[in-house]
Design brief:
Elements (H helix, E strand, L loop, with lengths): L5 H17 L4 H14 L5 E6 L2 E6 L3 E6 L7 H15 L5 H12 L6 H18 L4 H22 L5 H21 L6 H9 L5 H12 L3 H32 L6
Antiparallel strand pairs: 1-2, 2-3
Helix pairs in contact: 1-2, 1-4, 2-3, 3-4, 5-6, 5-8, 6-7, 6-8, 7-8, 7-10, 9-10
Length: 256
């Protein structure tokens, strides 16, 4: 244990916790990491209260801070990097200043290039279409629908737009491409094509973490994550329904 500047140590712990929460880490991991850092730098009388969208921290009446956390997507390479950094801090490899610099590097880590994400989304959609009982032709349509979906997400969906708008429009695009593929008899099973195409939008991490938080007794955080996931499910259902209704009215060929 190193006795050092309490405020700097608490700021460091909060910064690490914020990066973890922003990128989809579960609350137990975040709290463990923050306590590990605070313990190492000699902060004994501290309290951390974590929610999915905020960190409240105090230390002996001399330090208090609130870190608002936006509910957004996950980037697990950042989660792994912060977890490894916390272990290195405990091993004595970093001073506070060096650890802050390292956290800034982690915070500014770039995501994968957009073309790689789009490519992966398309092949993922095709694979899920096959997994849910589609054939090769269905997977081919789902491939192009997944690409169309993530072209929108990559170039339009991140432009500070509403999550409701992005998921609704994205699922509409994917479902409409599948509808066209079915109408022109490229694919044979519309349901399997649509399921595969919209699968990249499914909020698996928030949903599973929400269940985990609820089972751990973190009811408020669990409900926040569950509501976030349920909102996305509703948006996907709305977008797909709208695409089928418009496609059927304008083009025809599908009995709703």
């Amino acid at each position: 244990m190193i006795v050092t500047d309490e405020a700097k140590a608490m700021d460091l712990a909060c910064m690490a916790g914020q990066i973890l929460l922003e990128n989809g880490a579960e609350l137990s991991r975040v709290e463990e990491t923050m306590n590990r850092i605070a313990d190492h730098y000699g902060v004994e009388t501290r309290q951390f209260y974590l929610l999915t969208n905020g960190i409240f921290s105090t230390s002996g009446g001399r330090y208090a801070k609130v870190n608002p956390i936006p509910v957004k997507g996950s980037q697990f390479d950042k989660v792994e990097a912060v977890s490894q950094l916390s272990r290195d801090i405990v091993a004595g490899k970093y001073s506070i200043e060096e650890a802050v610099e390292k956290l800034e590097e982690i915070k500014n880590m770039k995501r994968l290039p957009k073309w790689k994400v789009i490519l992966a989304a398309g092949f993922g959609s095709a694979a899920f279409s096959l997994l849910f009982g589609g054939n090769f032709h269905d997977a081919l349509v789902a491939l192009f629908a997944g690409w169309a979906l993530y072209i929108f997400v990559a170039f339009v969906g991140n432009a500070h737009l509403s999550k409701i708008f992005c998921n609704s429009v994205g699922s509409f695009i994917a479902a409409f491409v599948c509808f066209l593929g079915f109408h022109f008899e490229i694919g044979h099973h519309l349901s399997q094509m649509i399921i595969g195409a919209v699968m990249p939008l499914i909020p698996g991490v928030p949903f599973v973490n929400g269940i985990r938080d609820l089972t751990n007794g973190d009811y408020l955080s669990g409900l926040i994550r569950m509501m976030d996931a349920i909102l996305i499910f509703i948006c996907i259902a709305f977008g797909v329904s709208l695409a089928l209704i418009i496609g059927n009215d304008c083009i025809g060929g599908v009995v709703l």
